[in-house]
Amino acid sequence: MSEDGTATTSTDQTAETMSSKEKRKHKVIIVGAGMAGLSSANHLAKNGCTDFLILEGRNRVGGRIVSIDMGSQKIELGANWIHGVLGNPMFELAMQHGLISIINIPKPHKVVAATEDGKQVPFQILQEIYEAYVCFLRRCEEYFLCQYLPPPDIHSVGEHINLEVELYLDGVDCAKEKHLRKLIFDCLLKRETCITGCHSMDEIDLLELGSYTELQGGNIVLPSGYSSILKPLCDNLPNENIVLSCPVRRIHWKRKASRRAGGEATAAAADTILEEDEEEQDDGNESDDSDRTVTEVPVGAGGAEPTQEERRAGEEAARRIKSSTANVVVECENGAIYEADHVICTLPLGVLKEQAETLFVPALPQYKVESIDSLLFGTVDKIFLEYDRPFLNATISEIMLLWEQQQQEDDVEGQERDGQWLKDNWYKKIYSFSKVSDTLLLGWISGREAEYMETLSHEIVAERCTDILRQFLKDPFVPKPKRCVCTSWRKQPFSRGSYTAIAVGASQDDIDNIAQPLYSSPHQSKPSVMFAGEHTHANFYSTVHGAYLSGRTAAQILLTPDSPQEIVMESDSSDLSSWIQGIALD
C-alpha cells in the first residue's frame, strides 16, 4: 500500500470536471496543497483575498502529512510530531482546535539495546554512551554560532563525531568493552540520519548543523493523528478553490507587458513569452526558444508519436499561452491552463531537483538551480508491523539493534553499484523497533537502504523484520506480523524524498536563494513567482512549522500594500522620547 493514493481515472475526471467549471484567471495560483500551500491560502482568505486557486497533484490535501488507521491506532506515514511548543504555530493551531490532550500521562519508556547474538547491554553503559553522544552532537552545533574552526580536514558532522568517539574510546582499555560502546555510537549515528534526513552523517555540513533552530517543549503527538490539523486549515477555504489530481506541467513566468495601442489583435500578437533582460539571454533568440518550449506536445508512452487529438490540444494550449496577457501562465498535465498575477510554488525540494529545469519557462536563474542542487533531500521511511497479540515484554518500549560494524562502503563500491551490497545489507540500517502500541511496532530506515527497501514487497520486508526480531530477542517464536505497511517517500512522484538537510558545502544561503521571489520585470512591485515549503525556511527546514511559516510569509508579501501607508502622529510634546512612544507598529 502506498501512503499517497496516486490519482486514479475517477479522480483525474474530477479534476477535469472541476477545472472546466473554474474561471481560468486568478490573482494567485498556489502550486501544491501541502502545509505551505494551505497556509498561504489560509492567510490570503483570512485577509479578504479569495481570488486564488490551489493546484494539487495528489488526490488529497496534506502533502507529506498523512495518517491512516492501523488496528485501533492512528499511524503517521509522514510528519510524526509537532516539534516544540514555544513559538510553534502548529502547536497553537492544535490547541486552538482542541487537538491536543492537556492531561498528558507519559507512558513508561524503557529502552533496551541488544547485540546480534541476542545479548542485552547493561542500561548504565547505554546511558553513559547516550550522554557522551549528545555532548558530541551539541559540540557540532556550536560551530555555527562560534568563531572557532573545527580540526583540519573535518567538514562533516559524521567525521567530527567519529573523531570524538575515537578519542573517547581511547580511554577504554578492554577491547570487548570498547567494541560494545562503538556499536552503540554507530546505532545512535544511524538514528541521527533519520532525524536529519540523510544517508550518512558524513553528508551533513558541520558548520551549518546549528543553523536549525530547535523550539523548546519536546515533541508532541496529536492523538487524532497529524492529519487532523488539516481540517481547521481547509475549513476556511472554499471547495472550488482547490483542484485535486491536477499536476502542473509548466509555469510560464517571465513576460513582457502587453502593448494595447494597436487594439486587441495587435496586443495578442505582441504578447510573447520573452526574457526581460538581454544580458540574461544565451543568444538573441530567447523568444524563439520559449515559443518552441511552449509548443512542445507531450510524447505518448514508449516515445510514440502524439495522436492528432494530442497535437491539436498542444497547439491550442500553445496558442492560449502565447496570447495571454497575464503575468504568469500555469499549464497542467490534464491540458488545463490557468492565468494568474502571482504564483506561489510550494513543490518539495525533491520535485524541484527533478523538474526545475523543465518546470519553469524561462528556466530559473542559475543561482537558484545551483542552490537546489546543493541542498540535500534525503529519504527516510517507516516500517509498521501489526500483530494479533503482544509479544514484547510489557515494560519495554524500544529495542535498539546493535549491528556489527559493516564492511566499509568504499571497499564495496563495485558491489553496491550492481545492488548486491544493498540486497545483502539494507536491513542493517534499521536501528531500532519501538512500540506504538502493544501490538504495533515501528522501525525507521534512511538513505540508500530506504530507497532499496521501497523496491521490495511488504511481505519480504515483514519476513526480514521477523528474522531480525527473532535474532536480537533470542526468541525463535516471535510471531509474523499480520500486516506490514512501509512508506515509499522517494518513489512518490509528488515528494521524491522526505525532507531537507544542509549537505557539506551548502549553507543557509542556499535556502535563502531558493526562497528568493522572481520578478517578471524590474518595475514590478510584487513578484510573479514566490517559493514556499520547509526547504525555504532558513531555521526551521525539515519541519511542518517551517512549511507553515514560509507559506504565510509568501502570502503576506502579496497582501502588503504597494506603497507604505502614511501614519500621521499628533503629539502635545516636542519631547523625542514621548513621540517615539506614540509610534504604533502594525
UniProtKB/TrEMBL annotation:
User: Which is one GO molecular function term here?
Assistant: polyamine oxidase activity
One matching Pfam family, short form? Amino_oxidase
Bias kind Basic and acidic residues: ranges: 308-317
Is this entry keyworded Flavoprotein? yes
Q: Gene Ontology cellular component? A: cytoplasm
- On whether Protein biosynthesis is a keyword of this UniProt record, the answer is no
Chain residue ranges for the region called Disordered: 1-23, 262-317
Q: Where is the composition biased (Acidic residues)?
A: 273-289
UniProt-annotated location(s): Cytoplasm
User: Where are stretches of biased composition, namely Low complexity?
Assistant: 1-17, 263-272
Spans traversing the lipid bilayer = none
Q: Which metal ions or organic cofactors does this protein require, according to UniProt?
A: FAD
Full protein name = Amine oxidase domain-containing protein
From which source organism is this entry?
Anopheles coluzzii (African malaria mosquito)
